[in-house]
Specification:
The complex is a heterodimer of chains A (225) and B (120). Chain A is an alpha+beta fold. Classes of the chains: A alpha+beta (225), B alpha/beta (120).
């Protein structure tokens, strides 16, 4: 898996970069540029899925010491920056609460990837062109004081009804076609568990028509047990 | 003009870096396909590159080892580590890499890092 994913990432690197080189051509036809931008977006999405699989494998077998630690504020900022590049056809605004300095969590480079995946999943589930996210980072007192939470709220996200009615980690057992639409959220749950944290989705309302939800990621404080 | 040595075992990745860097006005002065070849080329050239772009997972000698050896020869050498293995970042920085870029990266991210370390 490790070797295959490494090669796939190299291939995606080449495809993405050549598309970026095409986009850098002066006077490029606007339709060609639009197609190239869409292709870049899909390559990035494909890359994210490959990295997700790698992460699950890595996080499950690595110790906290091997995984290293991540500065949570920095990871949140970088994830927000990355997000806009992934969805060139959407206007994404992420309003962040004051990010705490010195908040370190277990997971090293995997933390940013986890955040990007959750945010990208939220954006994909939001049918609006203008996406407004509210990101709050806080100490998690009810978590044995062992960690930090990152709460990502989107008032317009449209969750499939099954996600509202079922725990996120058992959605795939109910309907695999639906599960594929929320695979990023499934990944987030598995990866957060593997890093000693948790992930949960709190819908704002019941039923298919209700929109809005808060996506809560709990991460273990670096050095805690 | 900033000069660059590219070290990566994948020919198409080496070509890709060359295409990007040349387009943005950098001078690619050499390429190597593993750490040992990089060491050999580095030690025998009198005109050292300003920057080395270093992969990690390569046959014969990996990027971390090659970075350590190169920095023994020249502690001021600037190395940008580029790898699909995000977990190797700490090892790479401990070995002396001045920047770490996870693959796949955006072209602008590579150029930003090149500019930053060229002007430092």
């Amino acid at each position: 898996m490790d070797l295959v994913s490494h090669d796939m990432l190299n291939d995606n690197q080449a495809v993405q970069s050549y598309l970026e080189l095409i986009l850098a051509i002066q006077g490029l036809d606007s339709r060609a540029a639009d197609y190239a931008r869409k292709a870049v977006s899909h390559v990035r999405s494909s890359t994210m899925r490959i990295e997700n699989v790698k992460t699950i494998v890595t996080a499950r077998k690595a110790s906290a010491a091997t995984l290293g630690r991540a500065d949570l504020a920095e990871a949140v900022k970088e994830a927000c920056d990355d997000l806009q590049h992934m969805f060139p056809s959407k206007a994404i605004k992420a309003k962040m609460s004051t990010l705490p300095e010195g908040a370190t969590v277990t997971g090293g480079g995997l933390v940013k990837e986890l955040l990007v995946t959750v945010m990208a999943s939220v954006v994909k589930l939001d049918p609006e062109k203008d996406v407004q996210l509210r990101v709050e980072v806080a100490e998690e007192a009810g978590y044995g004081n062992r960690g930090w939470t990152v709460a990502i709220e989107d008032p317009h996200v449209k969750l499939p009804a099954m996600v509202k009615e079922t725990d996120i980690d058992s959605v795939h057992t109910k309907d695999s076609s639906l599960a594929s639409k929320v695979s990023g959220l499934l990944f987030a749950k598995m990866a957060a568990d593997a890093l000693g944290g948790d992930f949960d989705v709190q819908p704002s309302g019941d039923g298919d028509a209700a929109r809005g939800a808060i996506f809560v990621l709990k991460l273990r404080r670096a050095g805690s047990r | 003009m900033t000069s660059v040595l590219i070290v990566d075992d994948e020919m198409f990745i080496v070509e890709l870096y060359r295409d990007i860097l040349q387009l943005r006005g950098y001078k690619v002065v050499g390429t190597a396909f593993d750490g040992e070849e990089a060491l050999r080329k580095y030690s025998t050239t009198s005109d050292k590159p300003d920057v080395i772009i270093m992969d990690h997972r390569m046959p014969v000698m990996n990027g971390v080892q090659a970075t350590k050896e190169i920095l023994k020869m020249n502690p001021k050498q600037k190395v940008i580590f580029v790898s699909a293995d995000v977990l190797v970042e700490k090892e790479a920085r401990d070995a002396g890499a001045i920047e770490f870029l996870p693959k796949p990266f955006r072209m602008d991210d590579l150029i930003d890092k090149m500019k930053r370390i060229s002007s430092s």
